[in-house]
Amino acid sequence: MRIHHLRATAFGPFPDEVSVDFDELTAAGLFLIHGPTGAGKTSLLDAICFALFADVPGLRDKRGIVSDHAAPSAVPSVELEFTCGTRRFILRRSPAHLRAKKRGTGTIETPATVALSEHLDGEWVVVSTRNDETAEVLHDVLGMGKEQFAKVAMLPQGEFAAFLTAKDDERRALLEKLFDITRFADVEEWLVDARRSSEATVAGLRAGIDTDLARLADVVARSTASGEDESHAGASDDAAGSDERLLEGLPALDPDSPDAIRGLLETMATRIEVTLSEAMVRLDAASSADVAAASAFQDGRSVQSLRERASAARVSLGALESAQDEIARARSVHDRATRAGSVRGDLAAVERARAEVHRRQASVAEAHAAVSRLVTTGFDSSDTAVGDSAVPRTALPDSGLVDKDRGTDRVDAEVVHGRSPEALVRVLRQHDDNLRELLRLDAERTARARRAREQLRDMEAATSVLQSAAERRTTASDRVEAATAAVTASLDATTSLAGLEQAAAEARSRVDLARRTLDDGALLDRLVRESADARSRAQDARDHELDLVARRLSQMAAELAERLVDGEACSVCGATAHPSPAQGGRQVTEAELDAARVAHADLVAAHHECEVRVTTTRTRIEEALRQLAVASVEELDLDAFEFGSVEATRRHDTARALAAEHAQRTAHLDAARAALTALEDSVAAARHELTRVSAMAEQTREDEESARVAMSALWISHADCPCGSTSAAESSDNAARTEAHAADSEPFPGSDAVAELASRHRAAVDSAAAWAEAVARHAETAERLKAALDAGLIAVTDAGFESFSEATDAVLPSGELQRIGDRLRDHDRARAGALSVLHDPMVMAAEEALPPDLALLEREAVAARSALLAAKSAQTEAAGAQRSFRAIRSSLTAGLDAAGPALAHHHRVKDLADTFSGGGLNNTLRMRLTSYVLAARLDKVARLANERLRIMGDGRYSLEHSDRLAARGARSGLGLRVLDQWTGVSRETSTLSGGEAFMASLALALGLADAVREESGGFDLGTLFVDEGFGTLDDESLEQVISVLDSLREGGRAVGVVSHVGELRSRITHQLVVRKTASGSTVAIAGPGSESAA
User: Fold this and answer.
1) Disulfide-capable partner of 469 in 107, 682, 823, 1076 (CB 3.0 to 4.6 Å)?
2) How many domains does the chain have?
3) What pTM was computed for the model?
4) Domain that residue 1033 falls in
5) How many CA atoms lie within 13 A of 230 on its CB side?
6) Domain identity same for 655 and 512
7) Do 1043 and 1081 belong together in one domain?
């Protein structure tokens, strides 16, 4: 890579644009960048790095690269022109920065921009304007990143001096940035992940085994505790001691000792089986003892309970004997109430029958009244046959039991005209068929009336439709005529369209020609004036030229006069006396004469050009006036031409619009004709519909007349019905019927009369049926009352009562009867119970026996039960321990079987991961794999550095890579030492003097740059920078270092030294000077004897 040009604006300490031509600066190969401290020498290198990578090297923040000295309106930017191989690029980059808002106050952040252009086929072509794409292209071209470029192309001496004396870890950090060791780091990471995975697997297995051992210890501990309890109860001390020894040995077990764990499991299995057997034997013994003690205690309690029952029975029996009289009276009352309760249903049945008879009598009376109101034909409401005999009389019994209670009067049902209610119903129903037919005919009449109204509306509508269709047919005919005229007009317009279009075009051309002619007239006046002025200026120039010629001739005489000498002959006239020599004025030079001649010729040419233009313009005006048929420009009326053009255009537009509407108007004509045809069809259809509706209306009138005759006959025949409905209906409908049918000889009822007739007839039928039903129900109720009286009399006599009233008085409420019965039963049960207890053989035997000692028996039972519970708990613990042990043994055995291969695999992976990570027993140097790879790179760097250090240090020192083991367990393998060839002693790099350290650091930086270039594919840097550090060298060492730097120019490479050391200014002739002021810094290129601002 070779840098050609750098341009930076508002960057770092540079407020204005600075431009550095590196082609000029690097002409000698070696150049110096110098200036006072803080002037901005390193900022120039930052500008190069920022242009390439959008960032600055080191710890500097790229957000601070915008110059604080620059004007607020300045746009910070860096432009770098460089060549990589055969490709030449220009890279323009602007960082994100704040600028003033275009509207209002304050600032707004402008985002960063980039533009990469490449020189192709003689021109610059933009490659990319995106940051990511530009970064990809530059990485492909340069072959390295920012960190590598900063270390390889700029060689910061301060950092390499630190690199020379750094610790292995610090040196490793820099080398990792410069050399790609990703694949080796991936191997390290993969092995660490594998170790971590195997550790997790082993840890999981160990945790499982440890958990099982802890559970096993818990089982042993519980077994030991149980054994101690049992030893107190009589178990052997040897077993307890064995359990304690097992418990003490468990913490010493390790998952890595599977044989010891398996042996322990066998021992514990045998011990747990023995413990369980012993616990079961003890449980059997404790259970037998508990049964015996509990039985003895229960027997004692039974004896005591029997003695207490006997005492309570004697006390209860005495209290019962003292209430014997009261119990006898209650028993008598309860007996009478019980007998009365047996006939309570018969008494209630008599009362219910009597009440029902009263209700039925009222119903018969109400039904008879309703019939009297509705059945009026030949019926007198005061008729004795329909008097009180209409309600049957039944003699109701009183509360006595004599025969008069059985009597009942006969029900008289002959009421209307000597007829029964059933006969009246039959007569009324005989007229139902006539009435239904009358209703049907009336409904049809109503429907025909509705149809007649609808037919009338249809006739009116048909008439209206016919009239409307006729009117629309007339309108459609008019539209057809109008459409025909419009089509004719559009056809004529289509025919004349071409001629009108040509006329409009000609009118527009005449307007344009007239406008141009007027412009040419004005132009002609101006050209005439310009021609006159040009002729005047040419004449003035001619006069000026002749004046200069005359003055030049006069000047020539004066020149000859100046050469005259008194006594010498004149070269013109030969006279030796010169009384009045010519006097010279202002000198006229040949240049002045030439200028005057050229000015005159130019003005003459200008005048000729004006004349040509005048002639051309005049000819053009004359031709235009001839075409416009106008005598002169003054007579030219532009408004008239424009008006004519507008009129022609209007006529053309009108014709074009009509022609464009021809197809549409033709379609309208076709549509109008189709509409006219459709309307003629509509008129015919309307006439047909009117004829059809008129025929239907005539048929409806004929049907109405036939129905009228039938309804009159039915109305007359219904007059014989007992309901008398026709008289009422005729009176209500008389006015309407008389008005509507005054000419008719037969009666004709209206719809309201028919409806009223039907309603009254149905009401009469329903009332007569209800009356017949009420009479029948009353007769049935009277029979039920008679039967209830007979059955009640028998039941009361059988119960021992003499009358209904005596039986009724003996009845008690159910609650009271239940209370007395409960008291009697309680008394009887209590007395029988007391006697039963006293006569019980067991009670009698208990009274004869001695009182038992229950407290002693209870203590013995409690003690036996406690021993049983303890034995059960021990047996349960032993059985649970056995189950737990079996589960733990199975899990522990499975864990031990799986742990063996997993541990072997983990040891192998751990040894590899530790070795590759710089640890482990096999890695005595504690060197990581990546460190081993970097060590090879460092060894190569040292060899390359020694090639330059041998020259700079007279061959005394050489750098050597050291893999010596570091102290206190630190990582090693990246050490650097210096070998003193004069003494043969290898020592630490920190023992070098300042100058020696600088030379070693410079050589190391150059060697590292060479190694990185080889690592990146042999990429060649055409421009290198060495930054600072030369102040520590003496003159001889400085000369040697410069010679080494000078050797770097081989192959056309340019080397720039960045330093403020004054000695270098005399040794390096090509320089870039950086100056600082209060308003910012500037740069200038200084050559061997000159300086130019950059």
Assistant:
1) 682
2) 4
3) 0.39
4) 1-153+1023-1094
5) 32
6) yes
7) yes
